[in-house]
Amino acid sequence: MSHLRALIAGLLLVAAASAHAAPDPARTAADTWRAGHETAILSEFTDFLAMPDVATTIPDVERNADHLMDLLRARGFVTRILSAGAGTPPTVYAELKTPGARRTVLYYAHYDGQPVGQRGWASPPFTPVMRTGPLGQGASIVDWRAAPTPLDPAWRLYARASGDDKASIEALLTAVDALRAKGIKPSVNIKLFYEGEEEQGSPHLGAIIDANAALLKTDLIIMGDGPMHQSGRQQVNFGSRGVIGLTLTVYGALRPLHDGHYGSWAPSPAVEIAHLIAALRQENGEIGIPGFYDDVRPPTASETAALAALPPVEAGLARDLGIAAPITDQRLDDSYFRPTLNVRSIHVGDSGPNAANAIATTAEASLDFRIVPDETPDRVRTLFSAGLTTLGWFVVDAPPDLATRLAHPRIVRVSWDPGGSAAVKTDMDGPASRAVTDTISREQGAPVLKVPMVGASSGLDVIVRGLRAPMVGVSIANFDDNQHAENENLRLGALWDGIGVYAALLSELDW
Amino acid sequence: MSHLRALIAGLLLVAAASAHAAPDPARTAADTWRAGHETAILSEFTDFLAMPDVATTIPDVERNADHLMDLLRARGFVTRILSAGAGTPPTVYAELKTPGARRTVLYYAHYDGQPVGQRGWASPPFTPVMRTGPLGQGASIVDWRAAPTPLDPAWRLYARASGDDKASIEALLTAVDALRAKGIKPSVNIKLFYEGEEEQGSPHLGAIIDANAALLKTDLIIMGDGPMHQSGRQQVNFGSRGVIGLTLTVYGALRPLHDGHYGSWAPSPAVEIAHLIAALRQENGEIGIPGFYDDVRPPTASETAALAALPPVEAGLARDLGIAAPITDQRLDDSYFRPTLNVRSIHVGDSGPNAANAIATTAEASLDFRIVPDETPDRVRTLFSAGLTTLGWFVVDAPPDLATRLAHPRIVRVSWDPGGSAAVKTDMDGPASRAVTDTISREQGAPVLKVPMVGASSGLDVIVRGLRAPMVGVSIANFDDNQHAENENLRLGALWDGIGVYAALLSELDW
Lengths: 511, 511
Known about the structure:
2 copies of one chain form a homodimer.
Chain A: H1 3-19, H2 25-49, H3 58-73, E1 78-82, E2 91-96, E3 104-110, E4 129-131, E5 156-158, H4 166-182, E6 189-195, H5 205-211, H6 213-216, E7 220-223, E8 235-237, E9 239-240, E10 242-251, E11 257-258, H7 259-262, H8 269-280, H9 301-309, H10 314-321, H11 332-335, E12 340-348, E13 358-359, E14 362-371, H12 377-390, E15 394-396, H13 402-407, E16 411-416, E17 424-425, H14 431-444, E18 449-451, H15 461-467, E19 471-474, E20 489-491, H16 492-508
Helix pairs in contact in A: 1-9, 2-4, 2-16, 4-16, 5-15, 14-16
C-alpha cells in the first residue's frame, strides 16, 4: 500500500469512528457486565494468578492447565490438552463452534510466566496484591475485596503473569460472560490455544502444531501476548521479532588466583568478557558482528507510513524511566526493524561479603538476539560464531580440556538456548488484518494504532508457518507492566478495556 | 647498592652457605621436634583452623583470639588484647623478653581469613581435611590422625586460613616448642602482633598502632603473611604493594525493561559496564586512567639485580595453570613494580533458571588496585575519579536521584572500600635486612631468594610508618595454596620447613 493509500485508509477509519458515535454493542455489553461484576472478575483472576506458573516446574503448569480447562468448560468450550509427551508443559486447547460461521479465528495466549527469582519483589510473585498505583510513586496496598465498586481503574494488580500473559486470557473469559449475558453470539468459530511454556522459549510448540495441524486449522491467528502502545492507546500489530539466546563462558587459569600475585600477569576472565561484550555491542546498540545486518529487510512503504503515524512516546518514556537520553535517535517503533543484541546478565567472581581479591577462573554472560525479517536463527548462530573467530576468540561448545587451554589464549564457550524463533510478519493490508483493525477501531470509537512490528518475540513463527494463517497481535496489558522482571503488574483499567476489545473481536470480527 | 655489589653479596652468601655445610642447630632442633610430634602439631593446627575466622563476624574472631592467647600463654608469652573498641576484631599481642638482648623483633601475622562464600569448596572451609596432594590431581582424603609418621610432606591440609595466614603462627608456636626442648634461647626480645581483620582491609590497624606505639617499639618487623616463591625456594621480601578497593555501580532505567521492547533504545547497564571496564583496563593489564603511572618509582639498580637473579618460573606456572600465554612479556616479579587493576567481580542481571530477557536497572563491578611506591591511596582515588570524568562518566557517591538521572546519560557511582594502604618498601641492604637473609640462608644451607617486592599487600604501611622500623617478609606457605579462593590449602612440607625458618629467626637473628 502506498503512503497515499495508507493516509486515505486512516482518514476513512477516523470517519468510520465518528459515524459510530453510538457505542459499540459489544463494548456496551462488556462495560455493563464488568460494572456489575468487578469483584467477581478479580476474584477469578487472582485465583489464577496465585498459581505458580514457571514452566520449569511441570506440576505447577499442569495445575494451571487443569484450572484453565475448568474455567473454559464452565463457559461451554470443548477443551483438551495438547501435549508433546509426558513431562512437557501442556497446551490447553478449547473450541466454541458457531453455527453458520464462515471463518475460524484462533486465539493464542500463554498461561506460563517468566521465572521469578529476581531480587526486589515488593510482594511475593504468586500472592496477588492490589496497589493504588505504580510502586514507588506513593502507592499503598489496598483490599480490593472490601472496597466499594467501581474500583479505581488506576489501581494495579501485582503478580507474576498479571500482564504477561494471563491478562489476555482473563479478558477473553470475561468477554464470553458479558456477551452471553446479553445474548450476543460469536461471529466466527472460536479456537483457543493457550500455551504453557512460552517463557521457556516454546521448545515443544512446533511438535504440538505439527501433530495437531488439522485440529488447529484457522483463517486467522490473534495473538494476545505483549503490552499496549506506550501512548496508552489500543494497538494492533502485524509482526514480532524472533529471539535466540545463548550463554558465553570465558576461561582463565584453572585455579582462582590471588590478584596481588598474579593480577599483572595472568589473564582476567572479568576483563576478557568486558572486552568481548564491548566488541560485540556498542553503547548505541550497534552490533559488531561482521555481516550481521546483511539479511535485514527494510520496512515497506506501507510500514514506513504506519510507523510515521504512530504517536511520539519517546520523550515522555525517557522522563518516566529516568533516562537522560536514549541510545539512539531512532523512534522506538522504527528500531524494531533492526536486530538487537541484549546482554541479559554478566557474572564473574563473588561480591558483597564474599568479595575476594582474586582472579576468577571463568566469566559468564547471557545474551539474547532479537532478530528481524529475513534473519533466521541458524544464520545468526553461524554469523555469531564466525564473528567470535574474527574477533580473535577460539570457540568451543564444551568446557575446554587442558590441551585446548594451553593451545589458545582466548577461549569462549558458546551454549545456545534451546528453541529460538524467526520473526513473524503479516501483511497489514490483507483482508483479515483490515477486519481486525476495523473491528477494534469501531469498539474503541477511534482508529486503533497500527504497529507494523513489535520489538518483542512470541516464538509464533512456528504457528504461522505450521498453520499457514496470517497473525495479528492484539495486546491489552499496560506497557509499564514490568513484564519479565520483578513486580510485574496489570493496570486495572487495562483489563477492563481489554474485556471490551475481546467482546468486539469475538462477536463482530468477520470478513 | 650497585649491580656489582649485589653480585658480590650474592657470591658471599653462596660461600657462607657452603661453609655451613654442618646443619644449623635451630634447624636440627626443629626437625627433631617435628619428627617426634607430627600428629600433635597437626592436632593443634587443625583445632585452630576449625574455628571460623572471617572478621565480619566478631564473635568468631574473638573466639580465635582467646584460643590463640591460650596457646601463647602455655608457651610462656605474656599476652594481651589490643582493641580499637567494642565490636571491632581484637589484635593478639604477646611478648617474650630475652635477658641481655640488644634487639627487639616484632613478628606480624593475621589469624583472620578471607570470606568463604566462593562456590566450589570440595570440603567445608572450617572442616580441615588432609588430602594426598593437590585437588583435581587424583588426590584422595587421608586420615592423618591414624597414619604412621613421618607423614608424606606432599600431603595438603585444606581449610580456610591454612596458608593465609595461620600457617606462619603455627610454625612460630612449634618453633618455640622445638627450641625449648633443646634449651636454645631466643637471641632477641620477641613481640608478636597477630591481627584479626587483615582480610577486611585492616580498618582499625592504624588506631591500634597509634595507641600502642610504645608497647610495640621494635628494631625490625618480620611479616609472616603471603606465599613462598613459585620456584618453591624460601624467599625474603623487602616490600609489598598497597591495595585499595572499590565498587562501581552503573545506572540504567529506573525499572527493569523487556529487552524486546526496549533493547534497541534504552541504555543497557550491562553493556555500559563492559565498555567502562574495557576502557579502564586493557586485556594486557595496561590501565587506561590518564596519569596513573606518573607516580610510579622504578626499581633501583640493587632491586633490578635481585629481580634478575630470581629463578624463572613463568613457563612452568603457565603450564600448571592451564594458561596458553600470560598477558605480558614481563617476568612475574618485575610486574610487581607496576600497579595492577583487578576486576574482582561483575554482576548484572539474573542468570541460570532466573535468567530473563530483561534489561537490568544497574550493573555492579568490584575492583581493586595494587599500588606501588610512590603512589598513595588518596592520589589513586583522585586520579580514578578524574579518569572516569575524562571517559565521559558523571561520578556520584550515592544512588542518583531522578534529576541527576535525567541530566546525565552515563552515571557511575564509586564506593571506595574502607581502609586501603600504600606500598611498603624496605632497603634490601640495611643491617636488619642482611641479618635476616643471612640467618635464613644459614638455616636453609643455601642462599635465600631476595624478592625486592611482592605483588600482594599487607596493609602494613600503617605499621611501618607508625613504628618507624624496617620490615621484611618471611613467608612459608606454598605458592599454590589457593589463598583468597575456595579450597585454600597448605602443603605439609611447607609447614615443616617453616618451623625450621622460625626456629632460626627466633634463636639466631641478631645484628
